[in-house]
Recover the amino acids of this structure.
């Protein structure tokens, strides 16, 4: 059977949603692994990553059930949800790729000031102290701060800003890639909804 028929479209939609299930499990597993081994101490960050993974799993589950059963209602909601996610993800990806250096630095400083647990994680991981300056009267999770002389500690801004552009481009590129897979899923689900199952009663579709 040529691709574009009922079976081929069904198999393509199932394969795409299985990919989404694997990605969602990877997100949940990575967040749990990072929390378990102490790589991330912020409950908020872990909760957000796990929440995204669970949401993606539920969307993929709806799409997979709709594809296997050729369920019109499930496929309709799958198309709507996936299209909304596509618009949001495409917007965020384009914003990541379009940010200039001043905007990147401003967002980094805002994010730094919002969570003390995130500050400790960054200081411990990158071995730096403070964002734009090192305060020797405050505490610091970096190992360099406990050694003599403490002046050897670098600011976290100097380290983060050196890689922020590359990270944003990487995140934007990954987001663009998955946004195109989402619009592919929307197209496949919409097409699949309007194809009659050749094995069923011709009047059952109506």
């Amino acid at each position: 059977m040529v691709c574009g028929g009922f079976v081929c479209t069904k198999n393509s939609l199932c394969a795409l949603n299985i990919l989404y299930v694997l990605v969602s499990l990877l997100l949940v597993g990575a967040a749990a692994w990072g929390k378990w081994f102490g790589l991330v101490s912020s409950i908020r960050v872990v909760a957000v990553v796990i929440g995204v993974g669970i949401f993606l799993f539920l969307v993929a589950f709806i799409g997979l059930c709709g594809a296997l059963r050729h369920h019109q209602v499930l496929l309709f909601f799958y198309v709507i949800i996936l299209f909304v996610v596509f618009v949001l993800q495409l917007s965020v990806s384009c914003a990541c790729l379009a940010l200039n250096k001043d905007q990147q630095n401003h967002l980094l400083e805002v994010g730094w000031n919002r969570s003390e647990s995130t500050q400790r994680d960054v200081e411990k991981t990158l071995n730096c102290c403070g964002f734009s300056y090192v305060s020797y009267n405050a505490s610091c999770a970096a190992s360099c701060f406990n050694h003599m002389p403490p002046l050897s500690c670098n600011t976290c801004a100097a380290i983060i800003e050196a890689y922020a552009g590359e990270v944003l481009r990487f995140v934007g590129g990954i987001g663009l890639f998955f946004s195109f897979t989402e619009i592919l899923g929307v197209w496949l689900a919409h097409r699949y909804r309007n194809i009659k199952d050749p094995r069923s009663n011709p009047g059952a579709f109506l």
Observations:
- Residues 83 and 175 are 14 Å apart (CA to CA).
- The first helix runs from residue 6 to 36.
